[in-house]
Amino acid sequence: MYQKIILASGSPRRRELFTKLGINFQYTTSTVKENLDEKIPPEKLVMKIATMKAYNVSNIYTEAFIIGADTVIYFENNIIGKPTDENDARKTLRMLSGKKHEVYTGVAIVNKNKSICERLFQRTEVYFKKLSEPLIDWYINSDEPMDKSGSYGIQGKGSLLVEKIVGDYDNVVGLPVGKVMETFTRLNLAPFGGFSHEVQ
User: Fold this and answer.
1) pLDDT grade for 35, boundaries at 50, 70 and 90
2) What would be one Pfam family of this protein (predicted)?
């Protein structure tokens, strides 16, 4: 039986991870505004925002399995989201330089018609190299950090900033696909075969 899967994310990185696995899915962007000011643990925050994104899209596509996701950086008891401008990105990269931070991604799998809401999160440790000012300037001028939590993308030029990671690499990219696939299996979802396209 065909089961429609919709990724509720505007992130091309998340779409690439699903496509790489051969998952048959559609995608659209949730209109939920991300609020990172809440004083709750990072794993609860990312699962809460992911759930809000999934339900936002499930109100339109009630028959589909909706995948919502949210990723944040956690550093010295502070949640770091996407930079507001180049100066904010520079400040973040200087702060993370030579230190360890954690990446949390929350995922929600929602099907409104079936009253399903599965939530999960993944945590990965990332260790940055000691970053020189010329390296920070070069990276910011690449424009890569501007739409990414923590002001870097590990799958691109940002890999040059990273000394090592401990845990799930895909989680740092933006989606812990291993855990997502385990949940698909538990829900008897058969997502393979086909191609991705935007919801019409």
Assistant:
1) confident
2) Maf
Instruction: Indicate the number of domains in the chain.
Output: 1
Residue-level pLDDT at 198: 54
Which domain covers residue 118, as residue numbers? 5-195
Catalytic status, residue 37? no
The answer to whether residue 39 is domain-embedded is yes
CA 1 – CA 4 distance, rounded (Å): 10
Report the C-alpha gap between 73 and 54 in whole angstroms: 21
Q: Measured in Å, how far apart are the chain's first and last C-alpha atoms?
A: 21
**Residue 37: CATH number of its domain:** 3.90.950.10
Beta-carbon contacts of 178 under 8 Å, excluding residues fewer than 6 positions away, are: 168, 170
Other Cβ atoms within 10 Å of 188 Cβ, number: 8
The residues, ordered by sequence, that sit 6+ positions from 24 with a Cβ below 8 Å of its Cβ are 5, 191, 192, 193, 194, 195, 196
Report yes or no on 125 lying in a domain: yes
Find out whether 168 and 124 touch, Cβ atoms under 8 Å. Answer: yes
pLDDT surpassing 70 at residue 9: yes
Mean pLDDT of all residues belonging to the chain: 90
pTM to 2 decimal places? 0.89
Within 25-115, strands assigned E span 26-28, 65-75, 78-80, 100-111
